[in-house]
């Protein structure tokens, strides 16, 4: 397979081309495993990193360590023909491992909503599961198109994205969450910040005067606690009830579940519009 067929930032060939569809792959990021399953190739995964928990079957995969520092010995024991990393800069140590094993090394780094179905298609080509991958990608594109049509021209809603609480962090417009906000007619109050993820203060959030707050949460109890915390801080959007908790894994992982999160978020921002 030629690297020229692979879209930039999605799957980039760095070590060896696959002479045939991959049969024994290791996903070195949780989102990569999820995308492989979406491409119809979950049965080709023989290992994954800690934190890989979706779909539920992925929890049974042998662990090869942490995403930031996978264990070369555990990887070697699994005899992979394909390693799927996340970002080339962070994955530099993977190259010699792949070379020693004679495995292909690819990177999956979707940065926009449109990149997600494209990544699924690319993985379908790597695994020879094009029929299922292409069908899944087409379904995701149709959902994105429906959202774009529905929310085009909607009144803008100023949004603060809560990406961390201790300390308080947010994301700028270059994040994939920023792409979701644009789709829904949201305006990120820290969208023009110079770095992707930045630490902010409560005073800064108050000064930004968001109409709504969006937070990645772990269940309904966490969502309720997040609302109470912002209300206790006296943030006007929270006092009006416009604090929206979205499942954190769905919101922050660049997979098909982010389209689920986008549909939820778009609907919640309609509530803030009144």
From TrEMBL:
SUPFAM superfamilies in the record: Helical backbone' metal receptor
Q: Does the keyword Manganese apply?
A: no
Give the source's domain of life in one word.
Bacteria
What InterPro entries does this protein map onto?
ABC_transptr_periplasmic_BD, Vitamin_B12-ABC_binding
This protein's UniProt keywords:
Signal
Ranges for domain Fe/B12 periplasmic-binding: 24-273
For the keyword DNA damage, the answer is: no
Transmembrane feature ranges: none
What does UniProt give as the signal peptide span? 1-19
What's this protein's name? Periplasmic binding protein
**Species this chain originates from:** Bordetella parapertussis (strain 12822 / ATCC BAA-587 / NCTC 13253)
């Amino acid at each position: 397979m030629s690297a020229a067929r692979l879209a930039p930032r999605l799957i980039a060939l760095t070590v060896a081309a696959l002479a045939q569809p991959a049969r024994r792959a290791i996903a070195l990021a949780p989102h990569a495993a999820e995308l492989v399953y979406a491409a119809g190739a979950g049965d080709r995964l023989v290992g994954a990193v800690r934190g890989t928990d979706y779909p539920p079957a992925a929890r049974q995969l042998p662990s090869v360590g942490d995403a930031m520092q996978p264990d070369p010995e555990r990887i070697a024991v699994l005899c992979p023909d394909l390693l799927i990393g996340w970002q080339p800069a962070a994955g530099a140590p993977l190259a010699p491992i792949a070379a020693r094993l004679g495995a292909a090394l690819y990177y999956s780094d979707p940065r926009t909503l449109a990149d997600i179905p494209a990544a699924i298609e690319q993985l379908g080509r790597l695994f020879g599961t094009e029929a299922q991958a292409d069908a899944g990608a087409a379904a995701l594109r149709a959902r994105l198109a429906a959202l774009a049509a529905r929310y085009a021209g909607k009144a803008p809603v100023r949004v603060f994205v809560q990406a961390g609480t201790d300390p308080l962090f947010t994301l700028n417009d270059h994040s994939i969450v920023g792409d979701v906000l644009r789709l829904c007619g949201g305006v990120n109050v820290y969208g023009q910040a110079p770095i992707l993820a930045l630490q902010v203060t409560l005073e800064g959030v108050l000064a930004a005067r968001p109409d709504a707050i969006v937070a990645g949460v772990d269940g309904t109890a966490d969502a309720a606690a997040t609302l109470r915390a912002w209300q206790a801080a006296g943030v006007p959007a929270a006092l009006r009830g416009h604090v929206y908790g979205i499942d954190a894994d769905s919101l922050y992982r660049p997979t098909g579940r982010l389209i689920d999160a986008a549909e939820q978020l778009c609907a919640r921002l309609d509530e803030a519009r009144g």
